[in-house]
Design brief:
With about 120 residues, the chain is an all-alpha fold. The protein has four helices and no strands. It has one domain: Up-down Bundle (Four Helix Bundle (Hemerythrin (Met), subunit A)), CATH 1.20.120.50. It is elongated.
């Protein structure tokens, strides 16, 4: 899942590492507080990463439609993250396994589908 931009690649590693920590912490200490704290931390990191990426891709000379699709993907993920948090605050029954799978899917699919396209526009 390496895209070739050092900061983006480091952020991807950090996000995946944070997700793995959340999975491990949830299994070791299944309290709601541990899960909530980890989910919040991951959400903040995801938001910061998306803001960085959006600034970067606008300067790479990517076609406008690719930039728009990339930014739209960020918006969709963050909206789903917000909806998930609202559901959890309302005590809606959402399994942790489902939440973790959703987070993993967001990260992996976004990196493979959208972030990989950055390679074509990065300086050699």
């Amino acid at each position: 899942m390496h895209v070739g931009e050092p900061v983006v690649d480091a952020q991807h590693r950090m996000l995946i590492s944070e997700l793995n920590r959340l999975i491990a912490a949830t299994q070791a200490m299944p309290s709601s507080e541990v899960f909530s704290d980890g989910l919040s931390r991951l959400g903040r990191q995801l938001d910061a990463h998306f803001r960085f990426e959006e600034q970067l891709i606008r300067g790479l000379g990517m076609p406008a439609d690719e930039i728009e699709a990339h930014v739209h993907s960020h918006s969709e993920i963050l909206a789903q993250y917000t909806d998930l948090n609202l559901d959890l605050m309302r005590l809606k029954a959402v399994s942790r396994a489902e939440v973790l799978a959703m987070m993993q899917r967001w990260l992996v699919e976004h990196i493979v589908v959208h972030d990989a396209s950055m390679r074509d526009y990065l300086p050699a």
